[in-house]
Amino acid sequence: MKTLVWVEHNNAHVKDATLSAVTAAGKLGEVHLLVAGSGCRAVAEEAAKIAGVGKVHLADNAAYEHSLPENVAPLVTQLMADHDAFVAPATTTGKNIAPRVAAMLDVMQLSDILSVEGDKTFTRPIYAGNAIATVESSDAKLVITVRGTAFDKADAEGGSAAIEDVSGPADAGTSSFVGQELAKSERPELTSAKVIVSGGRALKDAETFQEYIMPLADKLGAGVGASRAAVDAGYVPNDYQVGQTGKIVAPEVYIAIGISGAIQHLAGMKDSKTIIAINKDEDAPIFQVADLGLVADLFKAVPELTEKL
Amino acid sequence: MKILVPVKRVIDYNVKPRVKADGSGVDLANVKMSMNPFDEIAVEEALRIKEAGKAEEVIAVSVGPAKATETLRTALAMGADRAILVQVDDGVEVEPLAVAKILKAIADEEQPGIVMLGKQAISDDSNQTGQMLAALMDRPQGTFANTVEVEGDSVTVKREIDGGLETVKLTLPAIVTTDLRLNEPRYASLPNIMKAKSKPLDTKSPADFGVDIAPRLKTLKVSEPPVRQAGIKVADVDELVAKIKALGIA
Ligand SMILES: Cc1cc2nc3c(=O)[nH]c(=O)nc-3n(C[C@H](O)[C@H](O)[C@H](O)COP(=O)(O)OP(=O)(O)OC[C@H]3O[C@@H](n4cnc5c(N)ncnc54)[C@H](O)[C@@H]3O)c2cc1C
Ligand SMILES: Nc1ncnc2c1ncn2[C@@H]1O[C@H](COP(=O)(O)O)[C@@H](O)[C@H]1O
């Protein structure tokens, strides 16, 4: 089987999420990559070094700069004439593009796969990860998004794939990019952090969140996450949200502070290796999944913990 | 302008789903069902656009069993003007691709300026239908909307993306899918619930639109995820510090 993998990038570098998608695609057969963007040859060169890659298709066009699905889905669909499967990481970009491609190919997409069980058989989470479905596709071509935490990352080095320039459809003219507000942070990215410290509604407000969560995260070199309640209340920006509808994370250690453990939150972090919870309510559901629980008032326990570590 | 709002009847988000012992699926017998939370947000947003004088009519549509009528009545009670049920037999799950084809056929008839969907159904967690509909209609899409602004013949959508927020401008007609922070959906008042009972609700079938709903994906089995065992409770911060140090992260 020949697969085409969507390379997630910022027109300068390949993003990590791509590497898990490459691993998943490798289980299906020959791996080709698509780098679509503007002035992005450097990305293609970086992508060509990923271990296990057969070929890199480079589509360099101003219309592809911001991955607008109206423009890139027709490009992918065109390349799918020579491929059997399209694989994208289950990032917000992948989720935006892949279903559009699937509909253009008249196939059902397999969303957020956890494993490859056979040529056409995969497992995927449903009901916020409270059930795992094993599904088999009957479509001629496959369109798949891949949950990053479920697959090891392919080696970023070691390959030497050829780069082939491709041209695709021009700007569809129905959408335009206006701007971006990207959170800048010196901290590790949530989806690749080894340790994550997350805060919930109990943190009261943005200042309190800063005051109690950040020093602990700094001590541990950790990424910072949050529950939906904390994000909705404006303690931290939306991209901190962990859960069914936020980020799916699986760090070595996840520390949940003042988070009750709603199923939608657990959906995003219960595959973490070690879960630590600090909550003043000994019956909080988070303790049902926590390896280490401390029943305490966070406003006392967290500063003490930070100091003693 | 009309706004079409597809709403799905799903397990209530407060219910913890149970996998059936025979591995055939999730047990939905005697389980509370509600409107998919993202779709409530979509209904709310459509109503706000109408209340701002930028749309004339809000039409709710659901593809589902006869019971999905309740979901549509909820949308009508919130303020939608009329509803369409595309009825299938009890227990039949219609996949996003087929739902998108049905919605495309309805959009061809109704010619809405915006189709406002949820970003994801909390049952199948597919996150596909809106994008698929946009492809079938060959129209632009603004997914995971955090803010929606209609102006003239375009809609500006601020989207929640992995690194923060992104803004795109789309020419109408367009497809929008809602994220959680777009708005707080209203509750239907008792008088509005009563009024909703007399609002028009059409019942159709997938065959009326010539759409084949035969599934493309076959579910071989449904299983419980690996269960995590609750660990231990530590007595105090000192014990926690010792355990964290033993993990080798500090
Ligand atoms: C469709 C849908 C999708 C959702 N997606 C997500 C998602 O992706 N991620 C997500 O997180 N949520 C999500 N939610 C929301 C989820 O249901 C919960 O509402 C949310 O996770 C609760 O956040 P919380 O635990 O911070 O707040 P709460 O549930 O209010 O919990 C606060 C906790 O803090 C504890 N506490 C209070 N004071 C102290 C103190 N001084 N010291 C120690 N502990 C204290 C309390 O005992 C309590 O357990 C979603 C909901 C819906 C409907
Ligand atoms: N059976 C259905 N009836 C009406 N709308 C649906 C149906 N299935 C999906 N949708 C819409 O599509 C969105 C995304 O669903 P999904 O692609 O299944 O995650 C939902 O939030 C609904 O707005």
UniProtKB/TrEMBL annotation, chain A:
<dbReference type="InterPro" id="IPR001308">
    <property type="entry name" value="ETF_a/FixB"/>
</dbReference>
<feature type="binding site">
    <location>
        <begin position="258"/>
        <end position="265"/>
    </location>
    <ligand>
        <name>FAD</name>
    </ligand>
</feature>
<keyword id="KW-0249">Electron transport</keyword>
<dbReference type="GO" id="GO:0050660">
    <property type="term" value="F:flavin adenine dinucleotide binding"/>
</dbReference>
<dbReference type="GO" id="GO:0033539">
    <property type="term" value="P:fatty acid beta-oxidation using acyl-CoA dehydrogenase"/>
</dbReference>
<dbReference type="InterPro" id="IPR033947">
    <property type="entry name" value="ETF_alpha_N"/>
</dbReference>
<dbReference type="InterPro" id="IPR014730">
    <property type="entry name" value="ETF_a/b_N"/>
</dbReference>
<dbReference type="Pfam" id="PF01012">
    <property type="entry name" value="ETF"/>
</dbReference>
<dbReference type="InterPro" id="IPR014729">
    <property type="entry name" value="Rossmann-like_a/b/a_fold"/>
</dbReference>
<dbReference type="InterPro" id="IPR014731">
    <property type="entry name" value="ETF_asu_C"/>
</dbReference>
<dbReference type="Pfam" id="PF00766">
    <property type="entry name" value="ETF_alpha"/>
</dbReference>
<feature type="binding site">
    <location>
        <position position="279"/>
    </location>
    <ligand>
        <name>FAD</name>
    </ligand>
</feature>
<feature type="binding site">
    <location>
        <begin position="227"/>
        <end position="228"/>
    </location>
    <ligand>
        <name>FAD</name>
    </ligand>
</feature>
<feature type="binding site">
    <location>
        <begin position="241"/>
        <end position="245"/>
    </location>
    <ligand>
        <name>FAD</name>
    </ligand>
</feature>
<dbReference type="GO" id="GO:0009055">
    <property type="term" value="F:electron transfer activity"/>
</dbReference>
<feature type="binding site">
    <location>
        <position position="201"/>
    </location>
    <ligand>
        <name>FAD</name>
    </ligand>
</feature>
<comment type="function">
    <text>The electron transfer flavoprotein serves as a specific electron acceptor for other dehydrogenases. It transfers the electrons to the main respiratory chain via ETF-ubiquinone oxidoreductase (ETF dehydrogenase).</text>
</comment>
<protein>
    <recommendedName>
        <fullName>Electron transfer flavoprotein subunit alpha</fullName>
    </recommendedName>
</protein>
<dbReference type="InterPro" id="IPR029035">
    <property type="entry name" value="DHS-like_NAD/FAD-binding_dom"/>
</dbReference>
<keyword id="KW-0274">FAD</keyword>
<comment type="similarity">
    <text>Belongs to the ETF alpha-subunit/FixB family.</text>
</comment>
<keyword id="KW-0285">Flavoprotein</keyword>
TrEMBL record, chain B:
<comment type="subunit">
    <text>Heterodimer of an alpha and a beta subunit.</text>
</comment>
<dbReference type="GO" id="GO:0046395">
    <property type="term" value="P:carboxylic acid catabolic process"/>
</dbReference>
<dbReference type="InterPro" id="IPR014730">
    <property type="entry name" value="ETF_a/b_N"/>
</dbReference>
<comment type="similarity">
    <text>Belongs to the ETF beta-subunit/FixA family.</text>
</comment>
<dbReference type="InterPro" id="IPR033948">
    <property type="entry name" value="ETF_beta_N"/>
</dbReference>
<dbReference type="GO" id="GO:0009055">
    <property type="term" value="F:electron transfer activity"/>
</dbReference>
<keyword id="KW-0249">Electron transport</keyword>
<comment type="function">
    <text>The electron transfer flavoprotein serves as a specific electron acceptor for other dehydrogenases. It transfers the electrons to the main respiratory chain via ETF-ubiquinone oxidoreductase (ETF dehydrogenase).</text>
</comment>
<protein>
    <recommendedName>
        <fullName>Electron transfer flavoprotein subunit beta</fullName>
    </recommendedName>
</protein>
<dbReference type="InterPro" id="IPR012255">
    <property type="entry name" value="ETF_b"/>
</dbReference>
<dbReference type="Pfam" id="PF01012">
    <property type="entry name" value="ETF"/>
</dbReference>
<dbReference type="InterPro" id="IPR000049">
    <property type="entry name" value="ET-Flavoprotein_bsu_CS"/>
</dbReference>
<dbReference type="InterPro" id="IPR014729">
    <property type="entry name" value="Rossmann-like_a/b/a_fold"/>
</dbReference>
<feature type="domain" description="Electron transfer flavoprotein alpha/beta-subunit N-terminal">
    <location>
        <begin position="23"/>
        <end position="213"/>
    </location>
</feature>
<keyword id="KW-0813">Transport</keyword>
